[in-house]
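Record format v2
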Amino acid sequence: MAIEGLTKTTLTNGLQVVLKESHVAPVASFWIFYRVGSRNEKSGTTGVSHWVEHMLFKGTEQFPRGEFDKSIARAGGVFNGMTSEDWTTYFETLPSDRIDLALQVESDRMANSIFDVEEVESERTVIISEREGSENSYFYLLSEEVQAAAFRVHSYHHPIIGWKSDLLTMNREDLYQHYRTFYTPNNAIAVVTGDFDTQTMIEKLEAYFGNLPTGPTVPAMRLTEDRQQAERRILLRGSDPTAYLMLAFVTPEATHPDFFPLIVMDAVLSGAKGMGLFGGGGNNRSNRLYRALVGTQLTVDASCSYRPSIDPNLFAFYATLAPDVTHQQVEDAIWVEIRKIQEEGVTITEMQKAIKQTKAQFAYSSESVTSQAYWLGFSEIIGDSDWLDNWLEQLSAVTAADVQRVAQQYFAPNKQTTGWYLPDATLLDATLLDETLIDETLLDEDLLDEAE
Amino acid sequence: MPINALPNSDNITRVVLTNGLTVLVRENPSAPVVVVEGYIPAGAIHEAADKAGLSSFVASMLTRGSAHYDFDQFNETIESIRASLGVGSSDHYTNFSATSLAEDFPTIIEVLADILQRPSFPTDHVERVRQQKLVRLQERAQDPNHMASLQFYETIYGNHPYGRPTSGYVETVSQLQQSELAEFHASRYTPQGTIIVVVGAVETQSVLDLLHMHFGDWQGPVPDKQVPPFPTQPVGQQIHHLIPGKVQSDLIVGSLAIPRHHPDFYAVRVANNILGQFGMMGRLGEQVREQQGLAYYSYSSVDVDLYNGVWLAQAGTNPTNVEQARNSILAEFARMATEPVTAEELADSQAYMTGVLPLTLETNSGVASTLLNIEWFGLGLDYLERYNSFIYGVTAADVQRVAAQYLRPEQCTVVVAGPATSSSA
């Protein structure tokens, strides 16, 4: 399946260009992806990629702070910036006759962002506020703990937003240096989708981006996670009365041959997810996990996720516990489902369903130029556009034996990182945890009082 | 964009079936997908205070079993074709939406007709849904963002149904009986006033034939449109809702505003865009986020419905900054009321609100939601062609007048939800 209307080229300064022309609606979307994210960060400056993303909204000489977002909005456009573990991206979707504006602002701020010291300081508290909003959720805190425990060497250990201690101490020079290192045309991919003429768009990209100088090769990310030898357990306690569980395994990167068998396993366990930000959703109650956990009233929701990434990342299970159910019961029930696939594999019907579900998701997402551009750019970072183009073929080529093999290979008790969020008020089952812990829970009167 | 590409009376088919059901169809052959969206005029406004959450509970039960699709059959039918079909409830209506490949559209209509007209409310699923809802309410009680909103609406509307969350309360959801769910459905779900919008790669006549086949025999009463009178608006209420153990507080400042049909509607929308939406959240984003660095989000919104809605500003901020954020928001309210907005601000917001239309209408679901809104509020099929003139008809004096009328700082209700602050501890 060749992606219709796709053109790829590279400017002489190294900027990769991916274009997909279509004239269904009078709109176009421009995305610029940088090959940098929390994956490229070091202790002491975690969160720097995300903070830099914020700083790119703080102005250049040509577009002082506020002028960039006003220009786009005035043109009837929408915009945003996003940072992930593997990439940082900025987009503008506009009525197609105004798409040049996106090229103008993105080429400007790739090279000319100011990073004013006062703006850095006022953004520090904004980012800490963003982080504190997340910290209001124990589910967020649990997933941050599990992620950090699952990776001890690799930088996927760090939360994308950064550790709070780093957010308090990082300075303008850290941010500016990161910007100068990674924001170069040779470390970026420009994607344009929608209503434009391809040849004209290439000329415009040349005009706006062609003069930006090639930067030095970006520093290589050399960290590799060692094979996990022992089970790791997180026990998080707090005042919220709703209990959560997370169970995670380190699994291969997007370009690994086992990626697609794992995608099928994920779909069989909790439904086909599509490829991320856009086009997800949909009903999801006929899958194995829902039946085993929600159907039996052990939990009120249950899902798993396995997302494409540059380096091995997590295949994770999530559940919100029903009242009066123990974490151990839920953990056991998830393991029953994992073992079933390890011992019996999956059925042809389930695999066909995963393929049909994926096909439909491609069709739904093709409606929006914004989601198309996201998919194209993100695929280029994680693999390349052939990887995206071959998605359905690769998925269709997976056999039941492949799925069974990957289930056996990557899922084992000593490869798991388990997180329990336990409400303070819960009395732990004495058979499961040692006495010190139980005493501590019962004696922690301050916390109990607070919860009342 | 050529004006003839806008959905209008030339390219939308609108049909009212003999049972009172209104159908709107817009063909879009560009992708092999179809979106169905609709409203049934049964909502939380029809619940008694001690039954809060009833309408929402009924909506959740519709996909849990019906005459021809029990729970497993429903799931297998929808999910094996990777369609989606969801039902929810708000103040005035129960809303449904479905997405499928065009080839599966007849299946979607068949399932939709069965679950809307013939739900079976199986007892075991009533209990499963109840358990799920109670856990969500337990989570809500710990979420400063949700609790600030809940407290704000309760304070503004008092005992009026608009003051109650559509999801209800632990006390009411625990008590709802299966018979009450079935009774609400039997008495309130009716084709009269129900709207179904279909947009996508379909042929209009075949859509009408299918809908006639599956919905034509549905009968029901004219919906009751009585709404309890509004209480007097509270003046200057200050609420601090404590949630121990949290890191960030959520702040809401606002007051009662207008219904959708009020002549000030467009002036309020434009004023709101300038105040807390445009670009990076308008003036509030500039003041509270950009200049003072107090919050990651600081914006304003207008909630309009058939009856008087609210106009509010919201920010998430560290507990030590709550007072400064509140004062900044109130100062912005006062500034809009005492000084006219600049010509540039007005022109910018008008350009955005009209210019963004092609983006809103890019996808089938964008078109379907727009048409549903047009039909629900009776705006007319050529509404989009008149829309620009409504927005450009608003003057700086209008903006100042509505701000002065609806955003009086001394009249605003202020709600903070979160941990203790120095001023409240």
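Chain B is about 45% helix and 15% strand.
The first helix of chain B runs from residue 54 to 61.
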